[in-house]
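Annex B, item 7. Sequence and structure tokens for protein A, then protein B.
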Amino acid sequence: MLHQAAPPKPPKGKLIFAPGHPVSDASHGLQRDQPPRAAQFSHSKLRRSDLSPDPFVQFHSWFSDPLLQAAVPETVNLSTASLPNGRVSSRIVYLKELDARGFVIYSNFGTSRKSRDIATNKNASLCFWWKPVERQVRVEGVVERVSAEESQLYFDTRARGSRIGAWASQQTSVLEPRSSTTATTQQKADGDPKAAAEAGQEVAEDEDEDDGRAALEARVREVEARFEGQEHIPVPPFWGGLRIIPETIEFWQGRESRLHDRFLYTRIGGDLGQGGEAKWKIERLSP
């Protein structure tokens, strides 16, 4: 009788422990399930001779891989950190441009967490993960705001609803439930215990219907009315492009046994996009 090995039980108190994939053992013509093992990386390899001397050219080559067409390769993790506390925050954004100076994303820079971080610390990083080809690209550098003229060019390519949304959203600010706001307003205005009680009852009935979304949708309606019949919508002054000017760019290719190929480009001279060609040092890193 063939006995299957039971998967290891997670240590007490751990909700997730060493997740992996089932492994089959076909030795002696038997199919035996083994405890899950972490996935291996075996898609490809990376050698120094494969690399372009220009990391932007190398990035474009990887970004354009046909295997990534259905993988949304522009999806990227942007990390920023505030000073003096050093707290780091990350979020998924979309790469929208790669130019002679660096990598450009677009977002709200009026009320967002990233805007507060950048106000105290101009350093930021990007991390791309492309699972179909088992590759990462890590970018570290300093940031600068893209001009309003450049931002408008991209803003005009967005769907109208997205342009309206950019104006309406005070990104990361708290959206209060409409029910609580209504109750407070009525109680103060009426000064009537009976009316206050009725308002309180309405609040209880409405709490499950609105969790703050109504306030956002009200702003959207206001902006829609403001730009009604107007095809051209100006880019908001608090919204636009952020360019990450790289100091280092790492190209990571997964390999078996976690012995990955990693190559680091470090800028050692030149001023990106300012008429002088940037110079880069390339080094292989230990996995």
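Protein B:
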Amino acid sequence: MLGKSMYSIFLLQSLGGILFLSSCQIFDQKIDRNEYEVSKMKQFTNPVFEPILADPTVIRDEDAGLFYAYGTEDNWGDGKGNRLMPILRSKDLINWHYVGDVFAKKPNWKHHGGLWAPDINKINGKYYLYYSYSLWGDSDPGIGLAIADKAEGPFEDKGKLFTTREINVPNSIDPSFYEEDDEKFLFWGSFGNGAAQGIHGIPLAKDGASVPDLTKKFKVAAGDWEAAMIHKRAGYYYFFGSKGSCCEGANSEYHVLVARSKSLKGPYLDKTGRDINERGAGTVLLRGNEWMVGPGHHSKIIKDDEGTDWLLYHAIQKDEAKVSSGASRRVLMLDKVVWTDSWPIIGQGVPTQQSDVVPVFKN
């Protein structure tokens, strides 16, 4: 009888231990889930990086779960001179850290100019960075390409795709890559009043590294646009772009507008039905306010792991508009994009100072 009693006590203790461990595991799972729920309720405050990351382009390294952002060459006023297209890294689109530059020295296919407005893409397993090479008032700016095996580089310059004179589009800067059904295109162009001015597109070679036929360009927007980006959603092609002065400190008037089309090559119409090949057309998506001016030249839209769309762009804080080098202090901003009646909306239509939601990424 004593043996049986001891056995019963041992059995009960064992069962109790198993139940205790199981309850701990369930409790731990609840904590994990709760932490995940709490993570979705965190806030963040703009800007997400400063002093400067102008004309941002962003890509996610899916293997590492990291984001990389690249921007226009600028002097940050810290005594380190011009950064030749700076590279930032982040896990969450909110906390960014400078990790280096695309180039240690400028490419030699052009004698003078700045390296502006890069556009990063993953093509054929490699990182393709299209970039502008230009001066203010340059009569022959052009677009080049650099390629790397990793998002952080090192990047190898592949030279020019074309210059303004070769393609016969004035102010040929601000490249933006678009791919669909294994067809690759480059969209580009900037401000100007010339007859051939405007935003154009052109087919790229299958490897994305050259333009087989410069005569196959097509125009999609008038010459009062720049920094174009195409985004496809629910059967529409959305044309996002910027207008106004980008770089005049507190007086900058940059702002973002949008139009849409059922065809990649247009016509792109704003909400009122105007074709953006006419000057003055476009539906305003984002403009400055008393806090931040000159919002614009944004990244491609990034979708988080819950399906929420996000946009990164630069803007200038009105009361701290320049750095000691004299450069406009174009800080990096992040805002959520929502879709209403098949049109994008960002908050109240001005830069958000504090967001009540954050991007959610599970790795």
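Comment on protein B: The longest strand covers residues 330-340.
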